[in-house]
Design goal:
4 strands; alpha+beta; 8 helices
Length: about 190
């Protein structure tokens, strides 16, 4: 677990003087650290979603995990908000990676009608938790703008009966706190 760093209380000149750090070195290290954090944030917010149902189930079976199957449409307003406000966030990315989940995106098209009928999906967005054998654990239908990742994840876990690693252990909050304190001190 990362430790929270409160740099805004310690002036950089004092840190340099106490630690005998050469001029500019600390600033370079901060910039490098920020680039690494930015990469991590970008990585966590852009997870790869599978689009093949059978491959997703095979991957879940191999990993002994759950499939998060999102039934969505490109023309659906709530789907766009769900993707932007939940699926493309660091918090969601950390939750997925930390719990080793498999992501499946099923676009509402005629090619996927049989899959939608199989699971009784009549509207989008509809996000299902599936076992590796394809049985449904539960679902969260619809999305209200502004819900955000924490509330949505809690709702999904409750609907599916999943008890996964809590978000409180996510480094995402601590990374943002570090970055805020670093920028405040420069």
């Amino acid at each position: 677990m990362l430790r929270k760093i409160q740099l805004r209380r310690i002036p950089l000149a004092l840190v340099r003087a106490v630690l005998y750090i050469p001029q500019g070195f600390l600033e370079i290290m901060i910039k490098v650290s920020m680039q690494i954090m930015q990469w991590l944030i970008t990585f966590l917010a852009n997870l790869e979603w599978m689009t093949d149902y059978n491959k997703a189930l095979a991957e879940a079976k191999k990993l002994n995990t759950t499939v998060v199957a999102a039934f969505v449409s490109v023309h659906c307003g709530p789907c766009k908000f769900l993707k932007h406000e939940v699926f493309k966030t660091v918090r969601f990315g950390w939750w997925v990676l930390n719990n080793n989940l498999v992501l499946l995106e099923v676009e509402s098209t005629p090619a996927n009608d049989s899959l939608m009928k199989k699971y009784g999906v009549t509207g989008v967005p509809d996000v299902l938790g599936l076992n590796a054998d394809g049985t449904e654990r539960g679902r969260v239908g619809g999305y209200s703008q502004g819900t955000g990742p924490d509330q949505w994840i809690a709702k999904f876990e409750q609907a599916t009966g999943m008890n996964l690693t809590p978000l409180a252990e996510s480094p995402a909050t601590e990374v943002s706190e570090v970055s805020e304190s670093v920028f405040a001190s420069t």
